[in-house]
């Protein structure tokens, strides 16, 4: 049971870290596709 709880906590920590990294890396769609041929 201890290993299961530890695995759940590790999953939550890794997920939170992934969300933080992806949130800082990704651009909003208006910036990512800001070219002369695209209308948003």
Describe the protein.
The mean pLDDT is 85. The chain is mainly alpha-helical. The chain has one domain. The chain is built from two helices and no strands. The chain is rod-shaped, with a radius of gyration of 18 Å. Helices cover 70% and strands 0% of the residues.
Gist of the model:
The protein has helices at 2-25, 29-32. With 40 residues, it is mainly alpha-helical.
| Fraction of residues in helix | over 70%
Tell me the overall shape: rod-shaped
Q: Please tell me how large the radius of gyration is.
A: 18 Å
Supply the number of helical segments: 2
Q: DSSP strand (E) fraction?
A: under 5%
What is the count of distinct domains? 1
The total count of strands amounts to: 0
pLDDT under 50 segments (min length 5)? none
End-to-end Cα distance: 51 Å
Mean pLDDT: 85
Find the structural class using helix and strand composition: mainly alpha
SSE pattern: HH
* Biggest beta sheet summary: none
What are the defining features of this structure?
70% helix; 0% strand; mainly alpha; 40 residues; rod-shaped
